[in-house]
Design brief:
5-stranded mixed β-barrel, 37% helix, alpha+beta, 5 helices, elongated
């Protein structure tokens, strides 16, 4: 079986099947990647540990911080305590919530995507309220450059001109 055919079957399995965790499996949230196909996860009770990604998912399915997975425990592991058996997407999460199999610890916390969308809506409402064209607060600030203050005052220009003239007269 070619690599493309294997990839097709793995993707079809992950996206198409709706699974429920068995007695020894549990749903965890990915909090970060540690390299070498290891991911740090947290349970609904707040326990953190490392999980490994099996070979069939490597280079085929990608997971990121905030995703949910179903894991199988590994008894002999000290640091790595589980292996990913299934990756949960939005449809899978909704299915598990309807079946009332979703952990209570993950229901109370809104996802980071929901928080960011609320923040964007609030900022949009604030922008509509203040339609000031002189407001530069939304401009990008390049932190790699030194910050210089420029002023457009005529008085300062006259003072600088008179100082320059005084310097040239004393210097010559």
């Amino acid at each position: 079986m070619s690599q493309a055919t294997k990839r097709k079957h793995v993707v079809k399995e992950v996206l198409g099947d709706f699974v429920t965790p068995t007695e020894n499996q549990q749903i965890v949230k990915v909090t970060g990647s540690r390299g070498n196909n290891l991911h740090e996860t947290v349970t609904a009770q707040g326990e953190t540990f490392l999980v490994s990604m099996p070979t069939k998912f490597r280079k085929n399915i990608w997971i990121k911080r905030g995703d949910f997975v179903i894991v199988d425990p590994i008894e002999e592991g000290e640091k790595v305590k589980a292996e990913i058996s299934f990756i949960l997407y939005k449809d899978h999460i909704q299915y598990l919530q309807k079946q009332q199999l979703w952990p209570e610890g993950f229901m109370d916390k809104p996802s980071s995507q929901d928080q960011t969308s609320k923040e964007v809506e609030e900022e949009a409402n604030e922008d509509e309220e203040s339609n000031s064209e002189d407001d530069d607060s939304d401009l990008f600030v390049n932190t790699n450059r030194s910050h210089c203050q420029y002023s457009e005052s005529e008085e300062e220009e006259e003072e600088e001109d008179s100082e320059d003239e005084a310097e040239t007269q004393t210097g010559s």
